[in-house]
Structure formats: C-alpha cells, structure tokens
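Quick one:
INPUT:
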C-alpha cells in the first residue's frame, strides 16, 4: 500500500484527493489545521450577507468519509517536513510517515512590513475568521443605525486596501449591500462609505483594459470611492496615510494587497521564491525529492512559457490534479507528464447580479456573466457537498469511524 499524505484540504489538495480516491494500492491521509474547507471564492457573498455561513464551508471529515475507505482525515497543524526521513511533523502528536507527499497548504494575506501598523490594524479575508470579522462589523453597523437614529447620521467608512480581484469583489459586494439596505430600510446608509485603494494607476492591474474600464464604471456607479496610484505608507486604528500626504479615515480596514505562502510552507527547508512559495519542476515536484509535490498557492506555478501564474483557485485545482496523476504514474512506474497549467479565464463578481467573465477571446458583462460565475461556483461546490453528505451518512451509520 502506498501512503500519500496531502497537507491542505482546499482547492488544490481536494482535487488531488479526488484523483487518488478509490485507486487500488493507495491510501491517503488528508491533513488540515481546520476541520473544514473554506470556499474563499465565495467569501464576498458571505461578507455581503447573500449566503448563509454554512454554504461557504464543507466539513473535511465527512468529505473524506464520502471519498471512500482509503481516505482518512487528520485534523492537525503541520509544523515541518523531514524530507529525508519522509515524515510530516505536527505541532502536537506523532509524526506521520509518507511514501508520497503533496504540499497544498496555500497562502495567507501579505501584511507588508514596510507599511507601519498594517498588520495590527487591518484584517485579511483569506480565512473564514477574517471574513466573519468583516461581516460581523458590517452587520453591527447596520444594526446600530436601525436601533438608534443618531448613529445613522455618523459617517462610517470601510477601507479596502488592494484592488486586485478579491479587493474589487469585496468592495463592490459590500457597497451593493449598503445600497440594498438603504433602499429597503430608508436609513441614512448613504453615510456608510467604502474606499478602495489601489497602488497602481488602475484597479485590476494586468487585466484587459475593457474589463478595467467596465469594472471601474461599475464601482463608481455603486458609489465606491476609488483612490488609484495611491500608496499606503502607514495605518493606525483610525487613519491610513498615503504617500501623497492624503489621509483616509476608516472604521474597519481590510487588506487584500497581496499574498505570501503560509508560514508552514515558508519555514520548510526547500527552495522558495520571494513570496515563500515552493519552487517546483515541470512535474510539480520539489527539487531533490521526487516523491514530494507542491500545488496551488503554496507553489511557484508557471505556465508553459515560464510566466508566473497568479494565485487562483483554478490553477490550484489544475495543479492538484496534475500532481496526483504524476504520483499515480510513479506508483505504476509510468512516465510522468509535464504539467501544462494555464489561466482559462476569469469571472469577477461586481455586486448584486452583475459580473464580468473574461474568457480570453471574448468577454461577457452583466447578468449573464453573473449566472456564469454562479454556475462555475456551483459546479465546484456541489460534487463536494454530495460527497460530504454521503460521508456524513457513513459516519453516523458507523459512529466509531
Ligand atoms: C475574497 C477572495 C476571492 C477570490 N476569488 C477567486 C475567484 O473568483 N477565482 C479564483 O480562481 N480564485 C479566487 N481567489 C483565490 C483562491 O481562493 C486561492 O487562489 C485558492 O484558495 C488557493 O487554493 P489552495 O488550495 O492552494 O490554498 P488555500 O485555499 O489557501 O488552502 C490552504 C489549506 O491549507 C491549510 N493549511 C495551511 N497551513 C497548514 C498547516 N500548517 N497544517 C495543516 N493545514 C494547513 C489551510 O487550513 C487551508 O485549508 C479568491 C481569494 C479570495 C481571498
């Protein structure tokens, strides 16, 4: 029996699990520090109160049980990997030996040390905790206005630092929420302001100019206040200072300006890029250890022309599948194949039922794109939900499992 350990039960790790589940002669242990998979790609809907909390998480224990008998879930925090001894070391508990290892431990928000106060006074949204914190703050503010007319007169500001995909989606979705709430309750939510700060001259740097233009228009129409070419230099508990001397007062700050590999990944004794991601070869193995693969945001992923790929769920998923297929190739003593990762397009949610899909050759704007984005999300989520439901039935039928 070949034992495969996967560290990280999210987009990359779960796709690998799907390939390995049920394969003869393979046993898999999925390890995660959380007992759930948080659907980051739907985080904006959670924050804006459009979906309930439980629709953005999938329980990993049930999911593993649903994948079959050769899959086991271990709720533990990986601390190190003894690559020579082929063991994963945990913060607590016994080390776990492996024949093959997939590191899919993802990334965390990059709170730039050069921006004074950023780490202390802003929140990331890559974790369920950060997303819930923002949602809570947001709803408390609306509640105060409902309860107390004098609060409704105060201006409340949320500052979103970083205008990449996640920053833009969150700003648009929250502003749309304010607007909806204002219309339905006739309260002074016009005094709630969302500032979106971009260090570049535009939002969504690097995307097609038509997408940048349409997204900018959409945000402005919703009422988001845009600050472009604006570098945040310091943050305290109430004010973000910009390089040009401007100050933006805020009550809550979200930072989405970049990522770094998760601390566990950064601490591994292996080769890393500047973001702490693991350097991998074209088979997704880490140099020097043919049985160790890295995927998703934890890895320095490139396309076939050697261009670095942005950290997205879709590249995490593709790389998870490829790493698992290459493990099967090694087990079956076949030739591994070169991973051919590519960005197949983008879907951006821009508040309410408006979205943009960039399919490379063409673009779709508005409600149709929104339906497309929802279809993409559902086609990822529902197969996992059904597996978790089967797994839950198995666990409850056999409580000792
Ligand atoms: C608000 C937002 C919106 C986004 N929208 C999109 C989108 O529309 N489309 C898109 O393609 N991408 C989107 N992304 C990016 C996408 O979510 C990430 O690229 C994706 O989550 C990466 O998946 P991953 O499996 O590599 O890692 P992650 O999703 O980061 O998961 C890593 C897993 O490893 C676990 N882990 C970490 N450290 C340890 C440890 N020491 N021990 C055990 N377990 C550990 C974590 O608990 C986690 O479950 C969005 C991101 C955000 C924040």
């Amino acid at each position: 029996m070949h034992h495969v350990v996967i560290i990280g039960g999210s987009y990359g790790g779960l796709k690998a699990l799907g390939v390995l589940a049920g394969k003869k002669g393979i046993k898999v242990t999925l390890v995660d520090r959380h007992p759930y998979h948080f659907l980051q790609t739907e985080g904006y809907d959670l924050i804006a109160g459009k979906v309930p909390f439980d629709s953005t998480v999938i329980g990993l224990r049930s999911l593993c049980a649903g994948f079959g008998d050769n899959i086991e879930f271990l709720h533990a925090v990986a601390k190190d990997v003894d690559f020579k001894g082929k063991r994963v070391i945990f913060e607590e508990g016994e080390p776990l030996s492996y024949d093959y290892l997939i590191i899919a431990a993802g990334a965390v928000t990059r709170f730039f040390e050069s921006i004074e106060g950023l780490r202390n006074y802003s929140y990331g949204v890559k974790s369920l905790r950060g997303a819930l914190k923002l949602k809570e703050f947001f709803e408390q503010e609306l509640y105060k206005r409902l309860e107390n007319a004098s609060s409704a007169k105060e201006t409340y500001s949320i500052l979103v630092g970083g205008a990449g995909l996640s920053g833009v989606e969150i700003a648009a979705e929250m502003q749309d929420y304010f607007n909806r709430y204002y219309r339905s309750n006739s309260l002074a939510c016009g005094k709630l302001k969302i500032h979106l700060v971009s260090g570049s001259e535009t939002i969504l740097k690097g995307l097609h100019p038509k997408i940048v233009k349409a997204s900018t228009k959409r945000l402005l129409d919703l009422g988001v206040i845009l600050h472009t070419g604006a570098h945040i230099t310091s943050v305290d508990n109430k004010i973000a200072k910009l390089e040009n001397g401007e100050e933006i007062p805020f009550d809550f700050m979200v930072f989405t300006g970049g990522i770094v590999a998760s601390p566990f990944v950064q601490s591994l004794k292996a080769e890393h890029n500047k973001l702490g991601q693991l350097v991998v070869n074209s088979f997704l193995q880490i140099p020097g250890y043919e049985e160790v693969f890295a995927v998703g945001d934890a890895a320095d992923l490139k396309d076939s022309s050697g261009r670095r790929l942005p950290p997205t769920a879709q590249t995490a998923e593709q790389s998870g599948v490829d790493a698992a297929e290459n493990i099967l190739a090694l087990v079956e003593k076949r030739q591994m194949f070169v991973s051919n990762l590519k960005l197949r397009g983008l879907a951006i949610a821009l508040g309410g039922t408006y979205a943009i899909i960039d399919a490379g050759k063409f673009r779709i704007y508005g409600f149709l794109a929104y339906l497309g984005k929802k279809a993409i999300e559902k086609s990822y989520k529902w197969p996992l939900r059904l597996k978790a439901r089967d797994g839950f039935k198995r666990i409850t039928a056999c409580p000792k499992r």
